[in-house]
Amino acid sequence: MPSAIALLAALVLFSCNVLPASKKAQEQPAEKQTQSAENLDIYLDALNGLTGDDPAHQADVFYSIEREFTRAPTTSNTLRYALALIMPGHPSTNVTEGKKVLETLLATPERMTPTERAFGAIFLRDATTRLRLESDNRRLLATLDERSKGQANSDRRVQAQAEENARLRKALAEAQQKLEAIKDIERSIIERGPSSPSSREPTGETQSTPPGR
């Protein structure tokens, strides 16, 4: 991370040298311009304190920066606070809030030195890019989540349809078995045929012997 901050410092100094200065800035004495460049160390020291692998130390540095901003919201303290909020890698990072503070500060650039304006502009671009990427990531995650839910619902519908088909096949098989049983009973009845009628008994009428004459 220190190398990244050193690179950032180089970018700020480069911006101060190549960007066209305003008429008011051009009229500033050389001593004041030198002082502005030296004031860059104030912000670099603050950012360096927020790097590293010790969350407790990072919290202490951020609390000190926030306390100074709350007590005296000067241009320097406000810029340090905004940069600390935007700086990634520490527990108190809040890019959205830092961007708001920085935009408010840059709305009155006449209160800032060229170095501060360049530093603020670089961090503002960084914050804007990060927030846009975070928004894109959230949108992509939401799309993936929605598609996953849709796929899960589709899978459940397929599973339910498969279970319904299995139930219908089982019911059809049972109905076919019952039909075959009924057919067997009918064939058995047909093969036996109607039962023979019982032979009738003779009426038992006896011819009477004619009486003797």
Average predicted confidence as pLDDT: 77
Number of helices: 8
Oligomer kind: single chain
Strand content: under 5%
Low-confidence stretches: 13-28
**What is the helix/strand order?**
HHHHHHHH
- Main sheet characteristics: none
Can you give the helix content as a percent range?
Answer: over 70%
The overall strand count is: 0
User: What is the count of distinct domains?
Assistant: 1
End-to-end Cα distance, whole Å, is 159 Å
Q: Characterize the overall form.
A: rod-shaped
Taking all Cα atoms into account, the compactness measure Rg is 48 Å
Instruction: Quickly give the structural class.
Output: mainly alpha
Describe this structure as you would to a colleague:
This protein has 213 residues and is mainly α. It has one domain (1-17, 31-186). It has helices at 2-18, 23-26, 30-38, 40-49, 55-71, 75-86, 95-106, 114-192. It starts with a helix and ends in a 21-residue tail after the last helix.
Write the layout of secondary structure elements.
Elements: H1 2-18, H2 23-26, H3 30-38, H4 40-49, H5 55-71, H6 75-86, H7 95-106, H8 114-192
Helix pairs in contact: 1-4, 1-8, 4-6, 5-6, 6-7, 6-8, 7-8
